[in-house]
Specification:
mainly alpha; 2 domains
Length: 96
């Protein structure tokens, strides 16, 4: 007997995110073998530095803001302040 169960939005998003992250991690050794180890290290170092810079920028905004400490509320205050439609699109697009 086969039961067809509908997945919730969270379950569907978790499956898609898991496949994307898992596929990316599984592809790293293969791509490193194609491009060479030194190129792989340069790309990883660059990605790490960009990630650190972006996280420090977000931390700076959250620390200096005297209002709410929720990240989404803080970013909605500073990201596209006069364009609510664009801001809403980006917040929904990047939260999925």
């Amino acid at each position: 007997m086969s039961q067809n169960k509908k997945l919730s939005l969270f379950e569907t998003a978790a499956i898609i995110a898991g496949l994307g992250v898992g596929g990316g991690i599984m592809a790293v050794p293969y791509l490193a073998s194609l491009n060479g180890f030194m190129n792989f290290l340069w790309v990883m170092l660059l990605a790490y530095l960009l990630s650190v810079i972006l996280h420090l920028m977000i931390a700076e905004i959250v620390i200096r803001d005297n209002g709410e400490k929720q990240l989404v509320e803080t970013l909605s205050k500073y990201l596209f302040p006069g364009w609510a439609g664009v801001r809403t699109f980006f917040l929904w697009f990047f939260s999925l």
